[in-house]
Amino acid sequence: MLRACLISNRPISNKLISNRLISNRPISNRPISNKLISNGLLCLSLLLTPSLIYAAEPLATESPATAQHLDPLPVRQMNPAMLRYLDPLPESAWPSLKTGWRFSLNQHYSTVFLADTLPSANKYIADMEIYVADMEIRKRMQGAREASINLTVLRPNAGIFDSFLRQYHRALGLPNGGRELRPDNQFAYHYAQAGGVRQWQGKSRWELGNIQLKFRQGLSASDDWAVALLSSVQLPTGNRKRGWNHGGIDAGLGLAADFQRGIWSLHGEIWQIHPFKRNDNGLRNRDYARGTLTLGLNAPLFSIPLQWLVQVQGGSSPYQSGVSELDQQPWLVSFAVRWHDENQTWSIGFVENISQRSTQDFGLLLSTSVDFPD
Q1: What is the C-alpha separation between 135 and 189, in angstroms, rounded?
Q2: 228: exposed, middle or buried (Cβ count in 10 Å: 0-12, 13-18, 19+)
Q3: How high is the pLDDT of residue 54?
Q4: Is residue 309 a contact partner of residue 335, using CB atoms and an 8 Å limit?
Q5: Cα separation of 7 and 12, whole Å?
Q6: Cα dihedral angle (163, 5, 358, 42), rounded to 10 degrees?
Q7: Quick check: helix, strand or coil at residue 344?
Q8: Structural domain span for residue 272
Q9: Which of 188, 254, 301, 348 has the most beta carbons within 10 angstroms of its beta carbon?
Q10: pTM metric for this prediction
Q11: How far apart are the two ends of the chain, measured CA to CA in Å?
Q12: Which helix (H) or strand (E) holds 60?
């Protein structure tokens, strides 16, 4: 049970806590049907809108050789505790570049409220909104190989969306996660073990994230499918005392596959990740998996070439803590539209949680990339 001392300085009765915190029943028993229905309707509308508006003219049936290849959305988990570990941005099996190099800026703004509601010795709380900017430089190498480096900067803050989220949850009949037991728009981020000793204590300030190195090796490809081997290493450059790395190097190996049929594209990806440091401030960690499934539709809107995307991603957790907000599998769903020309791409999207106790509430994505010749 989340103790009052972690929620506010005002005393809170046990009756209030028991009536207002999330139920400890399994997720499947919670009233989430409205949320799933609303996500499904949004997904359907994103896919059907371009076809309905463009119904006056038949959609172009591009051949696989000329249709825009699918790049999955550059989305990852924004639970601050998950940012401490390697979570590779999804990667296409097709080469992203013909020649030269690419600069990408992937910006995320997410709301987060996660607090341990089960009786345990260890306590975790993350009450914030967080801006994360992933800056990636990618280089095409010989053959079907590409290498990239990703540098992250982030800014956790108290935020402005708490009142809106309470009303949103109330309107859909969804649990509020105990958010109402803390004052609106106040920052908190820490993990404390038995006895109240805090292993990290976050601050509302600019932070440097962890550096990721990634390598993609194409294995086989044709005009309408491709398979690639992926590898990635994360270097612990974030501040450990403030909760932005776990003090060790992570390495992952992945496999990506892409399929394309006319204007439709499908991307699948799976990773197995190994943290080399096994003791994380008294927390046990473990190998974990991440995966992504992306569906794309190339469909113009008012003669503007657009790509409409729906993406589901998640996997297992690196934590073995006894705290559900750290141990539960994190799953997300994203909806986005992408505009592209020969050398530049823009994506704008919305990210919503599927697992309610281990990921961000919702997030916004704005991504752009520019290609340069050698």
Answers
A1: 24
A2: buried
A3: 40
A4: yes
A5: 9
A6: -10
A7: strand
A8: 4-372
A9: 254
A10: 0.80
A11: 57
A12: none
**Beta partners for residue 139, in sequence order:** 101, 147
Structure tokens at 23: 């139920």
Residue type, 37: I
Contacts of 98 (CB under 8 A, 6+ apart): 140
Could you tell me the two tokens for 223? 């005009």
The Cα 70–Cα 294 span in angstroms is 9
Reading the block at residue 5, the tokens are 């001392």
Low-confidence ranges of the chain (pLDDT < 50): 1-38, 41-67
Q: What integer pLDDT is reported at residue 21 of this predicted model?
A: 38
Note the helical H segments in the chain: 4-7, 14-20, 33-53, 162-172, 324-327
| The pLDDT of residue 318 | 95
- Reduced to 3 states, what is the DSSP secondary structure of residue 373? coil
What contacts 363, CB < 8 A, 6 or more positions away?
75, 78, 108, 109, 110, 111, 350, 351
The structure tokens listed for 106 are: 């992937």
DSSP characters over 257-297 = EEEEETTEEEEEEEEEEEES--EETTEEE--EEEEEEEEEE
Among 233, 283, 253, 276, which residue's Cα sits nearest to residue 121? 283
The alpha carbon of residue 322 and the mean position of all alpha carbons in its chain are separated, in whole angstroms, by: 23
Six token digits for residue 183 = 């004052």
Q: State the pLDDT at residue 370.
A: 95
CA-to-CA distance for 90 and 133, rounded, in angstroms?
16
Residue listed under structure tokens 């924004």: 78
Provide the domain count of the chain: 1
Amino acid at residue number 95: P
CATH of the domain at 253: 2.40.160.40
